[in-house]
Amino acid sequence: MKIFNYPSPEAEKRVQDTIDRGLGFSREDQENVQAFLDDVKKRGDEALIEYTNKFDSPAVTLDTFKVTEQEFEDALEQMTPQFLKALDRAVEQLTTFHSRQRENSWMDTPRNGVMVGQMVRPVAAAGIYAPGAKGGKTPLVSSVLMGGIPAKVAGVKSISLMTPPMANGKINPHLLAAARAVGIDSVFKAGSAWAIGALAYGTAQVPKVDVIVGPGNIYVALAKKIVSGTVGIDMIAGPSEILIIADKTADPECIAADLLSQAEHDVLASAVLVTDSQDLAQKVSTALEPQLNALTRKDIAGPAINNFGAILVVPDIDTAIDLSNRLAPEHLEIIVESPFDYIDRIQNAGALFLGPYTPEPMGDYIAGPNHVLPTAGTARFSSALSVSHFTKKTSLIHYSKAAFEKEADDVITLARTEALDAHANSVKIRRK
Ligand SMILES: NC(=O)c1ccc[n+]([C@@H]2O[C@H](COP(=O)([O-])OP(=O)(O)OC[C@H]3O[C@@H](n4cnc5c(N)ncnc54)[C@H](O)[C@@H]3O)[C@@H](O)[C@H]2O)c1
Ligand SMILES: N[C@H](CO)Cc1c[nH]c[nH+]1
Ligand SMILES: [Zn+2]
């Protein structure tokens, strides 16, 4: 992995390439995705089956497109006790974390005779996307939990899960077990942009939803971007990224492993180490090569490391923090002598992992917080997928006659300033 001194023009270029890589949708991608969406809007399930047959599995038909109860049962029979134990732990710990995000409705009486408040309500229907590239061979089972659990905690009644099928026309059984564990019964065998279109517009089989959440590749991200406004979305969750700030106390083998953990997600993933130790930089670079070569997904992690990976040597940890705030990474690991000393200075990051025993995958699967996180610098203004993505708020207002009389003149004045006579009249008419 290439080592750069930072600041320097060469390092600056690599940093800029990393920032620019994430959400760069080409015109061609946009046109293709728009065409998929238009077609799903027009032809519904027929279009879904056609694209699923062409891109994922020739075995999916209109009759087998929705996962049946029998398929759920067959899947559950294949689960090992070891997997079910891990799944149970993940479900429990994620539910505990997300339950703390619940917001209550409230009412207040700020002035005599006036009542104001906010009612929190779940959306009626939500759609969850769980990635599964290469005919469902890399099913992100954990993404089912990350979408489903906050939706359930919010109180959403109808949840549909979309995920690409495997070549044999089935959904990966572990993914179905995860869906069952969080209480999602409607699972459809469709991925990519057409799955997002089905959720946004509805088809004969797929219910139209109010909110679509979940990560996915460029086609999924672009489709979500296009349909947002028609439906709510969580965010444009792009290719994964990790930034690690480490000092001489860090273990180079662990740092190399953590960098690769995100690089293996996508050829567009980014993995950056920022350190004040030249010695650590060299050792991580050396440790990385053999670890990369041993990976099953080295064909994905390799290009990610080559194109969007870097080891940046900085004069001090304060410079590392400034750079990290500028990059606003999806995942930020701080592995230095006293990591908690730096929390106050972290302004932009999707999730923060502190200390040598908090590798990023703890957060991907089991710690509790959500792993669907803002990427490509969008952590400057957006946050992890949460219960609030599945709720909306209605304001509540009440005036007594006396309270109305007291404030009426000011409303009339403001309405006239805006030349809105009818507004003024609606108040005036009540003042007999
Ligand atoms: N930001 C986050 O929180 C977060 C979390 C998890 C995963 N991720 C990211 O999600 C992504 C998952 O992507 P994935 O590819 O593994 O799964 P995916 O399900 O998003 O993509 C696979 C689908 O894309 C379709 N497809 C393939 N080629 C196509 C083409 N030319 N046109 C249209 N559709 C096509 C396939 O047929 C399949 O249905 C990765 O980039 C990963 O880094 C991000
Ligand atoms: N690291 C990914 C988010 O960028 C989430 C994930 C799912 N499975 C493994 N990892
Ligand atoms: Zn991951």
Automatic annotation (TrEMBL):
<dbReference type="InterPro" id="IPR016161">
    <property type="entry name" value="Ald_DH/histidinol_DH"/>
</dbReference>
<keyword id="KW-0368">Histidine biosynthesis</keyword>
<comment type="function">
    <text>Catalyzes the sequential NAD-dependent oxidations of L-histidinol to L-histidinaldehyde and then to L-histidine.</text>
</comment>
<feature type="binding site">
    <location>
        <position position="265"/>
    </location>
    <ligand>
        <name>Zn(2+)</name>
    </ligand>
</feature>
<feature type="binding site">
    <location>
        <position position="418"/>
    </location>
    <ligand>
        <name>substrate</name>
    </ligand>
</feature>
<dbReference type="GO" id="GO:0000105">
    <property type="term" value="P:L-histidine biosynthetic process"/>
</dbReference>
<dbReference type="InterPro" id="IPR022695">
    <property type="entry name" value="Histidinol_DH_monofunct"/>
</dbReference>
<feature type="binding site">
    <location>
        <position position="423"/>
    </location>
    <ligand>
        <name>substrate</name>
    </ligand>
</feature>
<dbReference type="GO" id="GO:0051287">
    <property type="term" value="F:NAD binding"/>
</dbReference>
<keyword id="KW-0862">Zinc</keyword>
<keyword id="KW-0028">Amino-acid biosynthesis</keyword>
<dbReference type="GO" id="GO:0004399">
    <property type="term" value="F:histidinol dehydrogenase activity"/>
</dbReference>
<feature type="binding site">
    <location>
        <position position="265"/>
    </location>
    <ligand>
        <name>substrate</name>
    </ligand>
</feature>
<feature type="binding site">
    <location>
        <position position="262"/>
    </location>
    <ligand>
        <name>Zn(2+)</name>
    </ligand>
</feature>
<feature type="active site" description="Proton acceptor">
    <location>
        <position position="330"/>
    </location>
</feature>
<feature type="active site" description="Proton acceptor">
    <location>
        <position position="331"/>
    </location>
</feature>
<comment type="similarity">
    <text>Belongs to the histidinol dehydrogenase family.</text>
</comment>
<keyword id="KW-0560">Oxidoreductase</keyword>
<feature type="binding site">
    <location>
        <position position="423"/>
    </location>
    <ligand>
        <name>Zn(2+)</name>
    </ligand>
</feature>
<protein>
    <recommendedName>
        <fullName>Histidinol dehydrogenase</fullName>
        <ecNumber>1.1.1.23</ecNumber>
    </recommendedName>
</protein>
<feature type="binding site">
    <location>
        <position position="262"/>
    </location>
    <ligand>
        <name>substrate</name>
    </ligand>
</feature>
<feature type="binding site">
    <location>
        <position position="364"/>
    </location>
    <ligand>
        <name>Zn(2+)</name>
    </ligand>
</feature>
<dbReference type="GO" id="GO:0005829">
    <property type="term" value="C:cytosol"/>
</dbReference>
<dbReference type="Pfam" id="PF00815">
    <property type="entry name" value="Histidinol_dh"/>
</dbReference>
<dbReference type="InterPro" id="IPR012131">
    <property type="entry name" value="Hstdl_DH"/>
</dbReference>
<feature type="binding site">
    <location>
        <position position="240"/>
    </location>
    <ligand>
        <name>substrate</name>
    </ligand>
</feature>
<feature type="binding site">
    <location>
        <position position="364"/>
    </location>
    <ligand>
        <name>substrate</name>
    </ligand>
</feature>
<comment type="pathway">
    <text>Amino-acid biosynthesis; L-histidine biosynthesis; L-histidine from 5-phospho-alpha-D-ribose 1-diphosphate: step 9/9.</text>
</comment>
<dbReference type="GO" id="GO:0008270">
    <property type="term" value="F:zinc ion binding"/>
</dbReference>
<feature type="binding site">
    <location>
        <position position="331"/>
    </location>
    <ligand>
        <name>substrate</name>
    </ligand>
</feature>
<keyword id="KW-0479">Metal-binding</keyword>
<dbReference type="InterPro" id="IPR001692">
    <property type="entry name" value="Histidinol_DH_CS"/>
</dbReference>
<keyword id="KW-0520">NAD</keyword>
